[in-house]
Amino acid sequence: MSATVPIPVPFDSLAFLLVPARTFEQFEVGEVFRAPSRTLTDAHSAAFQTVSCDNHPVHYDAEWARRHGYAAPVVHGLQVLAFTAPGATLFPHIIGEVFIAFTEVSAKFLGEVHAGDTLYPALQITDLIPGDGTGTVVTAATVHNQRGELVLSGQHKYLLRTTPAA
């Protein structure tokens, strides 16, 4: 019995997609894009502290944190916000070639995050604003912890090209 050998086809790097690309018109309000959960460690906080140059003792001094009413050193808020980065989800792959710009981000820090907490980031489409040849996708950015507490809420906006009229 002989094995069937597939006929080679030319490789096309532009067709090498993780997920099918979509256009602005193919999105719907309510769609959710989740990022993988992450359990934070002291090493994560130390790495972020090094990169951000934020040397406030609330982030690394357990005694200082306790004296000022915190249960433990607090993970940097901007580090928690970074977990909502669209690239942590499949969203950038889904918008593919229609992406123009990540235009806006906002956040409210609603609860302390500490080493040992597991975070669950998500982006949910809340509005689709058509423009002239473009469209803005508005998402609610949320991060919950392992206890189901909302520790960050915010908003992202992305500018996309629309499908040209036929």
TrEMBL record:
It comes from the Bacteria. SUPFAM superfamilies: Thioesterase/thiol ester dehydrase-isomerase. CDD domains: R_hydratase_like. Residues 28-142 form the MaoC-like domain. InterPro entries: HotDog_dom_sf (IPR029069), MaoC-like_dom (IPR002539), MCH/BMMD (IPR052342). It holds the Pfam family MaoC_dehydratas. This is MaoC family dehydratase.
